[in-house]
Write a structure and sequence with these properties.
By secondary structure, the chain is mainly α. The chain has one domain. Helix content is 78%, strand content 0%. The protein has six helices and no strands. Helix 2 (29-50) crosses helix 3 and helix 3 (55-72) packs antiparallel against helix 6 (99-124). The radius of gyration is 15 Å and the shape is globular. The chain crosses the membrane at residues 6-25, 34-52, 58-79, 91-115.
């Protein structure tokens, strides 16, 4: 397994951005929607840092994970895991279901796939 430094740098930049959003923005579009959009790109970048496999499979896997976590928010899963009072768990895993989050995740993965496709085309031509 070879570390892909480009994806790791992207992941670090995105993580820093997400942390800054979490610290300085408590409400609004950037915090709730754009943050979710970036979250799937961050997760994709972290995985791609370590796994050089098929872009499409990883992107879809990330989207499935994001959807599962979002749908779990329809249950009291944080209470079942005894994490209902854990700020970090609530921040990372979320605690309320929103359809807009599913849309943001989907748009984030579509963005990833478009960028990966364009990069792939550049390497072929």
């Amino acid at each position: 397994m070879k570390l892909n430094k480009t994806y790791l740098i992207i992941a670090i930049i995105l993580l820093t951005t997400e942390v800054l959003i979490a610290i300085y923005l408590k409400t609004g579009f950037i915090r709730h929607t754009f943050g979710d959009y970036l979250a799937v790109i961050l997760l994709y970048s972290i995985i791609k840092s370590f796994i050089p496999e098929n872009h499409f499979k990883i992107a879809i896997s990330v989207l499935v994970i994001a959807f599962i976590i979002e749908f779990l928010q329809l249950t009291n899963y944080l209470e079942m895991l005894n994490l209902q009072d854990n700020y970090l768990a609530k921040l990372i895993l979320g605690s309320t279901f929103h359809i807009s989050d599913l849309i943001a995740y989907t748009l984030g993965i579509i963005t990833v796939l478009i960028i990966e496709y364009k990069i792939y085309k550049l390497w072929i031509t």
